[in-house]
Specification:
- The chain has a five-stranded mixed β-barrel.
- The protein has one helix at about 55-65, and strands at about 10-15, 20, 30-40, 45-55, 70-85, 90-105, 110-115.
- The model is unreliable at about 115-120 (pLDDT under 50).
- Strand 3 (about 30-40) and strand 4 form a beta hairpin.
- It is globular, with a radius of gyration of 16 Å.
- It is mainly beta.
- The protein contains one helix and seven strands, in the order E-E-E-E-H-E-E-E.
């Protein structure tokens, strides 16, 4: 069997303050909207929006330290989420499930890291 890789790295701006929620089992979860820009051939910038999901202690740290407009680095994996609306329509979106989040702030130079695994403080 050949090896496969599912890894994403993003450096962008947070689109809104993260909201900490909990699953029915009590696990903390945060969803971030992250904006990345790219220059088009005509010289204009175009913004891509990404949904980033953080879990457990990492989610708690992101909710505490990250605010709208701040820059963050995220590495993780892509995951497809599919569901059916109340009207019976099939919907789906691709999410980035974070394994590492580094808080770059708003240019203050103070980078902090929220690791998705282990017993990291945040």
């Amino acid at each position: 069997m050949s090896r496969t890789i599912n890894r994403v790295e993003l450096l962008g701006r947070v689109g809104g303050d993260p909201e900490l929620r909990h699953t029915q089992g009590g696990t903390a979860v945060v969803q971030l909207r992250l904006a990345t820009d790219r220059r088009r051939e005509n010289g204009n910038d175009e913004t891509d929006w990404h949904t980033v999901v953080c879990w457990a202690k990492q989610a708690e740290a992101v909710a505490e330290y990250v605010r709208k407009g701040e820059r963050v680095y995220v590495s993780g994996r892509l995951q497809l989420q599919s569901w059916e609306t109340d009207g019976g329509e099939r919907r789906s979106r691709i999410e980035i499930h974070a394994q590492e989040v580094i808080f770059l702030g708003s240019g203050s130079g103070n980078a902090r890291e929220a690791d998705g695994g282990g017993d990291q403080p945040f």
